[in-house]
Structures are given as structure tokens and as C-alpha cells.
Design goal:
The complex is a heterodimer of chains A (387) and B (440).
Chain A: H1 8-14, H2 21-31, E1 63-67, H3 68-82, E2 87-90, H4 105-109, E3 114-116, H5 121-133, E4 138-141, H6 152-158, H7 162-165, E5 175-181, H8 196-200, E6 206-208, H9 213-225, E7 230-235, H10 238-241, E8 243-247, E9 259-262, E10 267-271, H11 275-290, E11 294-298, E12 301-303, H12 307-317, E13 320-327, H13 332-344, E14 353-357, H14 367-370, H15 374-385
Parallel strand pairs in A: 2-3, 2-4, 4-5, 5-7, 6-7, 10-11, 10-13, 13-14
Antiparallel strand pairs in A: 1-8, 6-12, 9-11
Chain B: H1 2-20, E1 73-74, H2 94-119, H3 133-142, E2 148-150, H4 156-162, H5 166-174, H6 207-221, E3 227-232, H7 239-250, E4 255-261, E5 264-265, E6 268-269, E7 289-294, H8 298-315, E8 319-324, H9 343-352, H10 355-365, H11 371-394, H12 413-428
Parallel strand pairs in B: 1-7, 2-3, 3-4, 4-8, 7-8
Antiparallel strand pairs in B: 5-6
Helix pairs in contact in B: 2-3, 2-4, 2-10, 2-11, 3-4, 3-8, 5-11, 6-7
Classes of the chains: A alpha/beta (387), B alpha/beta (440).
């Protein structure tokens, strides 16, 4: 597309001066006939996965159609209703949150229970630890997982170690930290990160990542009631895209239990969060194109992780593929790979495969090339089968 | 929009009357006077900014930080222990004052013995409280026993005042089987659930935002409890301190920030720690009521903490107390402060301006304490400390099983496997492990 380049004089001559500032840009775009919004370079890349909803749960009572952020709201609503000590806080949670996870809660439960904090992640987590130590239920929101690092000291040196170092006199088990996580198509360096590996190295906390609304509500409620400090990462790309029938009443899904989503005999595929949906598609493709039967496992809890379920599967299939968006070096796939080769060495038919992000910061325009998409995963399966 | 501002205006009008009264009723939430009050009106020559109102000014003038005269230091006694303004004497009973004195001196005695025990290789590390006993006892006495205490590491006197036994102090330093902390931390990292003293951790200032959160939870309980948070002037430079101050003021927490400004952060003197007027001057920047006190004057510390506590709970707002004092001892047993300060400087504070001697002068002036009392108390306190010391020396260390517990509330499969692996290993190589020192 060739836009006519205006000089500043042209701009002021052609664009009516009475227009308010925010209309200027739109007017400018209209004035350049060469630029069509429908040209190929301007169309944004489609999603790299197809969301695969869970079947409707029947054991938890009546359900309602909810997307991921609504299922989070539902979990928080249930918590505030049943636990009078529970408080939710973080940046911008009062009006409903930048991802609408806390919409309606302040009006319903009061401004002393759902409130904004100053813009300070180390403060948010430190404050949350204090609330928990004093015996109340603290649900802290970090606006993006990319911004959790100022709170790293409070999480690793304080929250994780509170019970151990005090000889169980004190603990902050009532603390849950929630943060939007993972790639979103255009998030780039600072709105796409998956920092679970940093925290996996920290005994004393739990790290949990759901794949959809039903899991999110059950796992979040488990984190909140768990007597250990938990970090709950919410795949932001699924906030609106993932829609399921979610039970209205509270229910819990156990932590540290991986879920086998489909059984298979040739390859074990392990992932968590958004990547589960990529893997499910890969499993279908592997079956159709390669005649390969894949067992898909959603790890769900990164720390402490369910080594038994994964190892049991690899003993059966002999091949393991682990995939995550986070960079490959030191990513959590490395921990899984190392443990599995220790436990299942003689059962392995091929080296364990990791399909992950590259060792770069998360790029903006290069996201389609960066992410561990279904083609890279399928190729890895092919290599393992032909080893 | 108008309705929203009308509500705010109405709310401010309602509370304006309350704010001017001395006896404030307990309110859950105080409307800040900085909150937007009136609708936007560009015909008025007043700033309309949401961030700050104040007035316009047309002279270019930078506000000068007041570091020359600075915030004055509140005191009750002079350096000789004489009351300066009788209205400020808290007029505590003889029994109470004697207890202050005995707690400060007992702490001093315990410090001498445990410092020496580190030098002899009996414990691995120790930090003394020399010179700061007044800050501990004065503030602890002004609190209720169920007020929650967050400390840094030089507040042992607060625990001692509340009744932490010598056996428990020593058990923690020796990391023996009686340690409430189960032997997991270095010496002086005390904690006591019963005495509402949160276990000390080494990272500095991390307790500050935690104290704000605890105070917020305590406020919601409506239980007439306060939270106090101790830290040094060095720790006040940490980002966590800024976070804690800002959160506690913004979220209206019943919290006392107690800064022990003792002149040094290990070897770093205050003129290399900050350029402003100490820590007290930062309080107003956060919207916090602040005061500077003579930390070596136990009554000044007591009065300030007492009033701060009363108002913090009644008004749900934080208070900042900067207690000026001097760290007479080294930073720790790993430090030799003669490397960065003169013996003359240390001697001045030890001899001319010490919280213990100033209180003793107050007591002797009233005929409450004699030379004989001093002699017999010194002998008795030393004996008590030595007996506890000998008990601690003999006690075994905790069972190494405790290496693996309390990481989570529950034992995890991985930890269980690691525990079993350690035991198998130790069984095989037992002669290389000091099992005899540990409880079975």
C-alpha cells in the first residue's frame, strides 16, 4: 500500500481544525486513498489454536455459560460470599479489572473487600502476605505476569518460606496471587510472558495454570482454600475465547494432579494452559496424518507437579513431548524431561522432545514464528516416531 | 457525573466536622481531604487537576528540603535523667519503671553472654542491642499484648518485655530442640505466636508492606488491635519501605512504623544512606503523621508510641515514629566497627547518653533504686542468664526429620522421596554425619 506522505502544512490545510484530537487520526486515515484497511499486510494473524471446550460437568450442580474471565469472577464471587475475611486487591480491580475478572464484586461486597492498591507489585504481594499472616484470605492480582518480578523477593524469600522458617508458628497459606499469563497475539515482550519456570524453582509455593473456564474456577478455588501460598496464572488469550458450561456453585479441582485428557499408546504429550489446545489438535493431526496415537496430559499444577501420572504414561508410550511458550532453556519442560529420563530411562524409545519458545524475549511482529505451534509439535512427533 | 461529585462533596462536608474534633469516634473509613470535592470549573482560577489541588503560584521557587534545622527531637528526660517538662512525665508506677529497667539490663546481660558465646564458637552468630534498649522497652510497654509486632532483627527487647523466656532466646540461638523455630534459622531470628511477634527474616524491609497488610486485616476484624513495624534507617531505603508507607496511608491501616535510626547500616553512616531530613521527614510525603523522638529516652519513646497507638486504632491511619539512637555495638559478630568509626564516638554514647543509665538516674532521684539494688540485681540477672545458657548448651539439636517438614502444610511425594533418600544415605555413611548431636 502506498500512502501519500503529507507535509505538516498539508495536514493542517486538509484536516478541519474543529475536530477534537481523537478524531484527527481517523480523519487522516480517510484522506489517504492508497491505504485500504483490507490489504493483506494489515490483517492480523489468526489465532494459533482452536479452543477445545471441556464436556459439561454434571457432578457440581447447575451450570451457566461462562468465558474464562467470567469463571474467575464466579470463583471470586463464591469466595467473597462464603469467607467473610476474604479480600481482593491489586491495580484497577475496583472498577472490574483490565480483564474484567472482578466486575461487579466491589458493588456486591463493599469497598473494604475489593479495592485498588497503589501501583507497586512488591507492595501488592507484601501487603497480601501480611493480610494472610493476620489470618484473613488474601487474593492479590498482578496486572500481567510480566510485571510480577518486583514481587519476586516477597514471593520467594518471604511467602514461600514463611512457614518453614518460623517452625510453623506463622504462615501465609491464605495468600493467592493471580496474574494473566501467556501469549495473546500481539502482547510482545511485556504482555506475553509465561514465568512459571522462575517460580518452579521455589519450594514452598504452588504454581497452577488452568486450560479453560471449568478448570480455572475449580483450580482457583482450590488455590484459595489451599493452606499454602499459591500463584494462579490465567491464560489471557483464553479470557474471552474460551467458553464453557461452568458450575455456578463452588467446587474444587485437586492441585498437584495432572489430568489425562485423552488416552493413547504411542506418544505422551504434556502441556498446560493455552498450549493444551494446541496439543489436542496435534494429537488429532498425528492420528489422521501419521496414524500415531497420542496421550494428552494437562499438567495443571507446575509446582508441586504430578510426576506419577506423567511417568506412568511414558512407561506406557515410551515417547514424551513437552511443549510450552516460555523459552526452552531452563523452561519447565527441562525439569519434566530430567525427572522422566531418571524414572523411565529404559522405557524410552526416543529422546524426550521439547517444543518451546526460543531463547529470546517474546517478540512482537515475529510471534507467529516464535510460538511452539502445531506444525512444530507435529514435526517433533514425526522425529520421535522415526527415531 | 454531577451526582458522583455531589456525593463526594457531601461526604467531605460530613467528615470535616468530625476531623476537627479531638475525640474521634471509630470510623471504618476516613475520606481523604485530598479527594476531589467540587465539579470542574474552568472559570475558577484554582487548579482543577485530579492529582493535587492546592493553589496556583506565579513565582518560580523550588521548595527547600529542611535538613539544617529539620524535624525536632521530642524528649522527656535530659541526658541526666531529669524530667524537663513535668506534664510529659508519664508518671508510671515504681513497679512499671523498675520492670523497664530490669528488662533493659537483662537484655544487656544476655547480649554480653551470647556475644561472648559466639566468640567462643558455641553459637554461630549473634547481634547485640547495645544502646537501643530504650527503643525496645519504651515502645513495647506502650502496646497491648495482642498487638502484632513485625521486626527487623534488633528488637529482642520487645520480645523480652512481652515475656519471651531466656530459655527460648537461647534455644533459638543454639538452634536446639527447644527452638520454637525448629532450628531452621540463624541466631536472633526469633518469633513467637503466643507473644504476637512475627518471626524475623533476614531480607530487610520485607516486613514493612506485610505489616500494612496485617494492619488492614486487623482493622476489618474490629478488634482494637494495632500493628507495629520496626526497621532501621538503612532498611528504610528499600523499595519495600516506600511500598509499605504508601499502602498503609492510602489504605488507612492502624499501623505504627517505628524506625530505629541508630546512625549506621553496618558500616554505612546516615550521610551515605539519605540526603533528606532522616526518615521522619518522609512521612508527610505519604500523608502520614510523623514524629522524631529521642530513642534513648524510654519515656519519650513510651509517650510517642502510646499516643500513636491510640490514634492509629481510633482513626485507622498509620503513624511514623523515628527514634534517634546510637548502635553502640558492632552490627553483628561478623563485624568490627573500629574499621569505620572511632572508639571515642562509641564511648560518648556508652557513657554520656545511654538509655539504661538515664533511666537509672530517674529511679535513683526518686529513691527507687540504690547501689545495693544495682549490685544484687546485676548478680541475679547474670546468674539467671548463665543458668539458661548452661541449659541451652546441654540440649540436643532438633531431629533432622525437621529438615523436610513445614515446606508446605502437608508433606509432598517429592519431599518424602528426598527424605527417604537422605535417610538411606545417612544409614550407609553414618560415621560422616554428626548424628549424636541431634535428637532421635
Amino acid at each position: 500500500c502506498e500512502c501519500i506522505i503529507f507535509s505538516i502544512d498539508d495536514l493542517f490545510r486538509l484536516v478541519p481544525r474543529a475536530l477534537p484530537v481523537h478524531c484527527f487520526g481517523a480523519a487522516l486515515l480517510r484522506l489517504s486513498p492508497g491505504c485500504s484497511s483490507r490489504t493483506k499486510t494489515q490483517r492480523r494473524h489468526a489465532s494459533h489454536f482452536t479452543y477445545q471446550p471441556d464436556p459439561v460437568p454434571t457432578q457440581y450442580g447447575p451450570t451457566q455459560k461462562m468465558n474464562l474471565f467470567q469463571s474467575v469472577t464466579s470463583a471470586l464471587d463464591n469466595t467473597l460470599a462464603s469467607d467473610p475475611t476474604a479480600v481482593i486487591f491489586g491495580e484497577d480491580v475496583a472498577f472490574g479489572g483490565v480483564f474484567r475478572c472482578t466486575v461487579g464484586l466491589r458493588d456486591k461486597y463493599g469497598k473494604d473487600r475489593v479495592f485498588n492498591t497503589p501501583l507497586c507489585e512488591q507492595g501488592i504481594v507484601g501487603f497480601g502476605i501480611g493480610v494472610a499472616v493476620a489470618g484473613a484470605t488474601a487474593i492479590a492480582e498482578i496486572q500481567f505476569a510480566d510485571y510480577i518480578y518486583p514481587a519476586f523477593d516477597q514471593i520467594v524469600n518471604e511467602a514461600a518460606k514463611y512457614r518453614y522458617r518460623s517452625g510453623n508458628l506463622f504462615d501465609c497459606g491464605n495468600l493467592t496471587i493471580r496474574a494473566p499469563w501467556g501469549c495473546v497475539g500481539h502482547g510482545s515482550l511485556y504482555h506475553s510472558q509465561s514465568p512459571e519456570a522462575f517460580f518452579a524453582h521455589c519450594p514452598g509455593i504452588k504454581v497452577v495454570i488452568p486450560r479453560g473456564p471449568v478448570q480455572a474456577k475449580g483450580l482457583l478455588l482450590s488455590c484459595i482454600s489451599d493452606k499454602n501460598p499459591c500463584i494462579f496464572f490465567e491464560p489471557k488469550i483464553l479470557y474471552r475465547a474460551a467458553v464453557e458450561q461452568v458450575p455456578v456453585e463452588p467446587y474444587t479441582i485437586p492441585l498437584s494432579q495432572a489430568e489425562v485428557l485423552q488416552e493413547g499408546s504411542d506418544v505422551t504429550l504434556v502441556a498446560w494452559g493455552t498450549q493444551i489446545h494446541v496439543m489436542r489438535e496435534v494429537a488429532n493431526m498425528a492420528q489422521e496424518k501419521l496414524g500415531v496415537s497420542c496421550e494428552v496430559i494437562d499438567l495443571q499444577t507446575i509446582l508441586p507437579w504430578d510426576t506419577e501420572t506423567v511417568c506412568k504414561s511414558v512407561v506406557k508410550t515410551g515417547r514424551l513431548l513437552i511443549s510450552h511458550e516460555a523459552p526452552i532453556t531452563g523452561g519447565f519442560a527441562a525439569e519434566i524431561s530430567s525427572t522422566v529420563q531418571e524414572e523411565c530411562f529404559l522405557n524410552l524409545e526416543a529422546p524426550i522432545s521439547r517444543v518451546c519458545g526460543y531463547d529470546t524475549p517474546f517478540p512482537h511482529i515475529f510471534e507467529p514464528f516464535y510460538i511452539p505451534d502445531k506444525w512444530k509439535c507435529l514435526e517433533a512427533i514425526k522425529r520421535m516416531i522415526n527415531y | 457525573m454531577n451526582k458522583m461529585y455531589g456525593l463526594c462533596f457531601h461526604a467531605v462536608r460530613q467528615t470535616a466536622g468530625l476531623k476537627s474534633s479531638r475525640l474521634l469516634q471509630r470510623r471504618a473509613f476516613r475520606v481523604s481531604t485530598l479527594h476531589r470535592q467540587q465539579p470542574f470549573d474552568s472559570t475558577l482560577e484554582k487548579p482543577q487537576f485530579p492529582g493535587a489541588s492546592a493553589e496556583f503560584v506565579d513565582q518560580l521557587e523550588f521548595i527547600e528540603p529542611n535538613v539544617i534545622s529539620g524535624i525536632p527531637v521530642y524528649r522527656v528526660m535530659d541526658r541526666q535523667g531529669n524530667i524537663i517538662n513535668p506534664s510529659q512525665d508519664p508518671q508510671l508506677s515504681k513497679e512499671t519503671v523498675l520492670n523497664f529497667y530490669q528488662k533493659m539490663t537483662m537484655l544487656n546481660t544476655m547480649d554480653r553472654i551470647l556475644y561472648e558465646s559466639q566468640r567462643q564458637g558455641r553459637i554461630s552468630f549473634y547481634m547485640t542491642n547495645y544502646g537501643e534498649e530504650g527503643t525496645h522497652i519504651g515502645s513495647a510497654a506502650a502496646l497491648n499484648p495482642n498487638d502484632l509486632v513485625f521486626g527487623q532483627y534488633r528488637e529482642a527487647g520487645v520480645l523480652m518485655y512481652r515475656g519471651f523466656s531466656l530459655d527460648h532466646f537461647m534455644a533459638q540461638c543454639y538452634a536446639n530442640a527447644d527452638d520454637l523455630g525448629k532450628g531452621r534459622q540463624m541466631p536472633v531470628h526469633y518469633g513467637s505466636k503466643d507473644l504476637n511477634f512475627v518471626t524475623i527474616s533476614s531480607p530487610l524491609a520485607t516486613q514493612i508492606p506485610q505489616a500494612a497488610g496485617a494492619a488492614y486485616a486487623v482493622k476489618r476484624e474490629n478488634s482494637n488491635r494495632a500493628v507495629i513495624c520496626y526497621f532501621g534507617e538503612g532498611a528504610a531505603s528499600e523499595g519495600d519501605a516506600h511500598a509499605g508507607f504508601n499502602f498503609s496511608a492510602t489504605l488507612e491501616c492502624p499501623l505504627i512504623f517505628f524506625c530505629r535510626n541508630n546512625g549506621y547500616a553496618i558500616s554505612t553512616p546516615t550521610n551515605e544512606q539519605y540526603r533528606g531530613d532522616g526518615i521522619a521527614a518522609r512521612g508527610p510525603g505519604y500523608g502520614m503523621l510523623s514524629i522524631r523522638v529521642d530513642g534513648n529516652d524510654v519515656f519519650a519513646v513510651y509517650n510517642a508510641t502510646k499516643e500513636a497507638r491510640r490514634r492509629a486504632v481510633a482513626e485507622n491511619q498509620p503513624f511514623l515514629i523515628e527514634a534517634m539512637t546510637y548502635r553502640i555495638g558492632h552490627h553483628s559478630t561478623s563485624d568490627d566497627s573500629s574499621a569505620y568509626r572511632s572508639v571515642d564516638e562509641v564511648n560518648y554514647w556508652d557513657k554520656q547518653d545511654h538509655p539504661i543509665s538515664r533511666l537509672r538516674h530517674y529511679m535513683t532521684a526518686r529513691g527507687w533504686w540504690s547501689e545495693d539494688d544495682e549490685r544484687s540485681w546485676r548478680k541475679q540477672s547474670r546468674k539467671t542468664v548463665m543458668e539458661a545458657f548452661e541449659r541451652a548448651e546441654r540440649r540436643l539439636k532438633p531431629n533432622p526429620e525437621l529438615l523436610f517438614t513445614d515446606v508446605y502444610q502437608e508433606m509432598t511425594p517429592q519431599l518424602n522421596k528426598q527424605r527417604e533418600s537422605l535417610w538411606r544415605h545417612v544409614q550407609q555413611y553414618k560415621e560422616h554425619y554428626p548424628l549424636d548431636l541431634y535428637d532421635k
